[in-house]
Amino acid sequence: MFAEKLKQDEVSALRKDLAAAYRIISLLGMDDLTYTHITARLPNADSFFILPFGKLFSEINASMLLEVDLDGNIIRGQEFQYNKTGYVIHGEIYKVRPDINAIFHLHTIDTVAVSAMKCGLLPISQFAMPFFQAIAYHDYNSLALENDNHGAKIAKDLGSLKNIFLRNHGTLSCGKDLQEAFFFTRFLEQACQVQVKILASNQEFIIPEDEVCAQAARDILSFEENMGTRDWQALLRLLESNCPEYAN
Prior knowledge:
This protein is of the alpha+beta class. The protein starts with a helix and ends in a 6-residue tail after the last helix. It is built from 7 helices and 8 strands. α2 packs across α4 and α3 (109-115) crosses α5. The strands form 2 sheets. Strands 1-5-8-7-6 form a 5-stranded mixed sheet, sandwiched between helices. It has a single domain, classed as L-fuculose-1-phosphate Aldolase. It has helices at 2-27, 84-96, 109-115, 147-158, 178-201, 210-221, 229-242, and strands spanning 37-40, 47-50, 66-69, 74-76, 102-106, 136-138, 163-166, 170-175.
């Protein structure tokens, strides 16, 4: 009985955090109407939570989130329209990466722009340093509708990393929890914004030496034990002030 109550509390907390993630991305202007998705699961779980397809990020609250198994079958909740792309991408990664419990899949204008650049992400800002020699790329292959042809290949290209550009499409940022995945998501967005602006300026730019980039990556990634938590807590305070209904 105690174990069951504990799991219910953990699920409730996860739902609340995931709903917060959707609202935060909306507040930051990083959503794309109803076309992207964020998921989270309890550690070692064979299911994950996701928004109902057709809802705006700004509409999401904890109780409306769906629970889906790793093969894309809805366990709890009601889908407005079956969202195979979300289930294929996230489910296949969760199957092979027990260390990952949260995934942000976005297509902001600047991340899509960088995803289409042959040079990929350049280490030309501090925002880009956490990804130095640590970001994967997956070639575009139309909509992700097939587990084997799309989801499994994305998971393979991601390998042991936590961030990947989907060429001509967008990004996936993963983490041990929503806070870490959000940290990567925001830094990657900022890095891409800076890169797009610098390249558009047609000015010569400076790329630090590899040793400096590598040291910066180590320093940033080890700066705090629970990466992303400080910013996350600050943003939760913002949500509580502006849209507390996310937790319902």
